[in-house]
Design a protein that fits this description.
By secondary structure, the chain is α+β, with helices and mostly antiparallel strands. It has two helices and 14 strands, in the order H-E-E-E-E-E-E-E-E-E-E-E-E-E-E-H. The longest helix is centred in the C-terminal third of the chain and has 20 residues.
């Protein structure tokens, strides 16, 4: 009976740990934000191409203070025809990596020879442009900022640009690596239980 209780306790702890996700290979990143502003509920982001096929696995929205967003944000990638090819909704407390909160999406492959636009609905949150230490993934070609005007609060294919580095806003990741917290905790837990069972047998 004691052995059974110990085993159930270990399993319970493992389940309580919940899933943990790590994001790698961000399309763009920077060391410090640039100008920050919110002057309307825009659909904005940036235009890009790729020089090798890339699979989008997560979409992100900029968290200026890294302390949680105040609302959910729709994020999506459009192809050059204006078709929305992948989208997701970033929640206020989704996992943080670098300056973005992230949500997983259906894996979607971007192809060479196409130009894409990534956009996000800003709501009442700040976005940034012209950041310091701006870098891109080696397979991503950043082209220019983009936005939809008027600011209608709906995720929309952008129709304007100001020629700045930004707007961020949105980002995407080409890798979503699930690191199940339950599994990580279960390893020492099960080892402990099995050790207990050996001692009691």
């Amino acid at each position: 009976m004691k052995r059974s209780n110990a085993f159930l306790f270990a399993v319970g702890l493992a389940l309580l740990a919940g899933p943990v996700c790590a994001y790698a290979d961000l399309a763009v990143d920077f060391t410090n934000p640039g100008q920050e502003w919110n002057n309307g509920n825009w659909s904005l982001g940036w235009k890009f191409s790729v020089n090798a096929p890339l699979t989008v696995e997560a979409l992100g929205f900029y968290d200026d203070q890294k302390n949680g967003l105040t609302e959910a944000h729709d994020v999506g990638i459009f192809d050059s025809t204006g078709a929305l090819i992948v989208s997701g909704r970033v929640q206020p407390n989704d996992p943080l990596e670098s300056w973005w909160r992230w949500t997983g999406v259906t894996p979607t492959t971007l192809v060479v020879g196409e130009e894409y636009q990534i956009a996000a609905v800003t709501g009442t949150e700040n976005y940034t442009w012209a950041p310091a230490g701006f870098v891109t993934d080696s397979q991503v070609n950043f082209l220019f900022d983009s936005y939809w005007t008027p600011a209608n609060g709906v995720l929309t294919y952008p129709n304007g640009s100001d020629g700045v580095t930004g707007y961020f806003g949105p980002n995407f990741s080409t890798q979503l690596v699930p690191l199940p917290g339950s599994l990580l905790l279960a390893i020492p837990a099960f080892a402990s239980v099995f050790g207990l069972r050996r001692r009691l047998s």
